[in-house]
Write a structure and sequence with these properties.
The structure is a single chain. This protein has about 575 residues and is an alpha+beta fold. Among the domains are: about 210 residues, no CATH class; about 120 residues, PDZ domain (Pdz3 Domain), CATH 2.30.42. It contains 19 helices and 19 strands. Strands 2, 3, 4, 5, 6 and 7 form a six-stranded antiparallel sheet that branches. A hairpin with a 7-residue loop joins strand 12 and strand 13. Helix 15 packs parallel to helix 17. The longest helix is centred in the first third of the chain and has 36 residues. The chain is globular. The termini are far apart.
Length: about 575
């Protein structure tokens, strides 16, 4: 009898939690809708966070749909009357609507009266020139409160973080329609974990998975504070890079007992293929695609998928034609390990384009020049007279057979528009459509360049060289190419005949915007939708590539730049 009673109580408790989660699901959606549509909130001057926290207990505690609907109608009434609007559609700015999803406003469990109230707000939504919660500038920031002093657990503020971020994606993020998971399902899935997170570590585990679900490489800037307990305290004592679904050891810096050698190819981790091991960790690494995730995994600060809470890792290695199985000891992080990992970390940043190359321009081969995109960007920023940049670009013309532009690193578009293209005898052409969040209809986007695209390009300088450069031009790209590097690739593809060589780029084009979450957390997301003129997005898939080329194990081990070698070979043909 006691066992039956226990089971019944357990079932009842689960039913209550399920009912509360359902209430929270709709409460978060309705609160977010009001935040972005209701004029009293959208114009600013209203504490929407306190509003959320104050109303949350009542919404969560309602016992049935009727009580929940009553609570929501009272919440809307408390915001005041919405006057009839006068919404006019500018046909030149016909909105992009693939992200728009307001169908739930007219469905159960919302009753007819609540549906009508929400529909009225949608039809008479905020129409001002500046929305409090939608950025208007490039690199925008709505500067929402971060509540840095919260202690854990604090479920109301933890749920506020979920509500704030989920609705940012629902109404502002330009690529919701490309997210792999259904965004409504993500909300349902994350409510219990974030609500019940008892510690900061539990909270951060939930946050990082929520943000990773967006599939955006710009979101990898999000930093947690408790990385050791979240990801684990045991690290491999070697550095590595991914080649497709294998891992190649590139250096050994703190491993004297496991007989791991430079050039070893790891094909299995803890009885899983490398691909499966990476898949297991993907929910904790924000990125647009797996190519970019793997680049981030190989950062010695992350060291995934090896890093963990277990000091032992079983691996299978391919070494000079022989398969070896090893049970290796991972290293617990301490000050000694931090010192030993520094050179590997510096090398990682150098190789991944996070630091400038040691050259701006060089002769890659006889008659073939090569420009390092980040280095020339830095030179352009620092050179007020621009004479140094001009001197570099003058050397390009001295290499008549071909030019390689290395975009496997960050690059600024200004130097391309103002210097590189004119020096090559070309002027920019229309290369992309650019869609911004629509402050007058949240959840939609508008093509902000429709009116000014021709005016923008007519202001650019004419080519300094009237004769176009006649050599072959090759652009090098891979997973290191992100944001403006992808943007610049598209500029060059449109302006002149180029060959893009390499592998999938990071898939996060254009500018960013900033977001803030309770607990003193901040991050970035892609701010606007970028597409080729034919409508093809660069988000997630990356830029269009003409020749797919990957490094080899032998080349990576030897430290060769095989992509550059292939570009030289292509130019010489």
């Amino acid at each position: 009898m006691k066992k039956i009673l226990f089971v019944l109580l357990l079932v009842l408790a689960n039913m209550q939690l399920k009912a509360q989660s359902d209430n929270l699901y709709y409460y978060i959606k309705i609160w977010g809708f009001l935040k972005y549509y209701h004029p009293s909130i959208a114009r600013g001057g209203f504490d929407v966070d306190s509003f959320f926290v104050k109303r949350l207990p009542g919404a969560a505690a309602t016992k049935d749909n009727a009580a929940f609907n009553k609570e929501m109608k009272e919440m809307i009434t408390s915001l005041g009357t919405v006057p009839p609007g006068n919404i006019k559609q500018d046909m030149l700015f016909k909105p992009f609507t693939r992200n728009l999803d307001n169908g739930w406003l007219q469905k159960a469990p919302l009753d007819k009266e609540l549906q009508q109230s929400l529909r009225y707000i949608e039809e008479n939504r905020f129409q001002g020139s500046q929305h409090r919660y939608i950025f208007s500038d490039y690199g925008g920031d709505t500067d929402e409160p971060i509540f840095s002093n919260i202690s854990y657990p604090m479920p109301n503020y933890q749920l506020l973080a979920l509500a704030r971020f989920w609705n940012i994606i629902q109404y502002v993020f330009p690529y919701k329609y490309l997210i792999s998971q259904n965004w409504d399902d993500v909300l349902r899935k994350r409510i219990p974990g974030i609500r019940d997170a008892a510690t900061q570590v539990d909270y951060e585990k939930e946050l990082i998975q929520l943000i990773a679900a967006v599939d955006d490489s710009h979101a990898s800037n999000f930093q947690i504070k408790r990385g050791i307990p979240v990801f684990g305290e045991y690290f491999p004592g070697f550095a590595y890079r991914f080649i497709k679904d294998s891992i190649v050891v590139t250096s050994v810096f703190a491993d004297s007992v496991n007989d791991i050698r430079k050039g070893d190819v790891i094909v299995q981790i803890n009885n899983m293929s490398v691909a499966a091991a990476c898949k297991q960790k993907e929910g904790f690494m924000p990125a647009s695609n797996m190519a970019r995730k793997k680049l981030l995994y190989s950062n010695p600060l992350y060291s995934l998928p090896f890093r963990g809470k277990d000091s032992i890792c079983e691996i299978k290695i391919w070494r000079k034609g022989t398969v070896l199985k090893k049970r290796i000891a991972l290293i617990k992080i301490n000050q000694s390990f931090r010192e030993k990992v520094k050179p590997a970390l510096e090398q990682y940043y150098k190789e991944t384009g996070s630091a400038p190359s040691d050259y701006v321009f060089k002769s890659a081969a006889k008659g073939i020049g090569m420009i390092a995109a980040m280095s020339i960007s830095k030179l352009y920023e620092a050179d007020n007279t621009e004479t140094k940049v001009d001197s570099v670009l003058k050397m390009v013309r001295e290499h008549e057979q071909g030019l390689i532009i290395d975009l496997r690193q960050y690059c600024l578009q200004n130097v391309i528009f103002n210097k590189v293209l004119p020096a090559l005898g070309y002027k920019p052409k229309w290369f992309a459509d650019y869609y911004s969040p629509n402050i007058k209809y949240p959840g939609t986007l508008i093509n902000t360049h429709v009116k000014n695209r021709m005016a923008t390009f007519s202001r650019l300088a004419d080519p300094t060289n009237k004769e176009p450069y006649k050599g072959k031009i090759v652009l090098l790209v891979n997973e290191k190419s992100q944001s403006q590097s992808e943007w610049v690739t598209m500029i060059l593809q449109a302006a002149m005949k180029v060959t893009v060589m390499g592998s999938q780029t990071a898939g996060a084009d254009g500018d960013i915007f900033h977001f803030q979450l309770p607990g003193d957390y901040q991050g970035t997301l892609t701010g606007r939708r970028v597409s080729y003129p034919d409508g093809t997005e660069s988000q997630r898939s990356g830029v269009k590539i003409d020749i797919i080329q990957y490094p080899t194990t032998a080349g990576l081990t030897a430290g060769r730049d095989e992509l550059m070698e292939k570009a030289i070979e292509f130019i010489k043909k």
